[in-house]
Amino acid sequence: MNCSFRWNVFNACLDIDASETINQSVNFTLTSDALMFNFIDNDRHNMSDEL
Questions:
Q1: Tens place of pLDDT for every residue, the chain, 51 residues?
Q2: Cβ-based neighbours of 2, under 8 Å, separated by 6 or more
Q3: I need a surface site. Which of 14, 25, 44, 51 has the fewest CB within 10 A?
Q4: If you write DSSP's letter for every residue of 3-41 in order, what string do you get?
Q5: Cβ-Cβ contacts under 8 Å for 29 (sequence gap 6 or more)
């Protein structure tokens, strides 16, 4: 499954006005009673990656 989402961060006090569109994909399998997701990018990001 491919997904795309857009986020916005605005904080006038900290002079932050950022936006980004991110495209990601995830594989999944269908079991008898659930969807089992296999996330491809599960690396933990540090705080500097978030801005």
A1: 888 989 899 998 988 899 999 888 888 999 998 998 887 665 666 767 665
A2: 23, 24, 25
A3: 44
A4: EEEEEEEEETTTTEEEEEEEEEEEEEEE-SS-EEEEES-
A5: 35, 36, 38
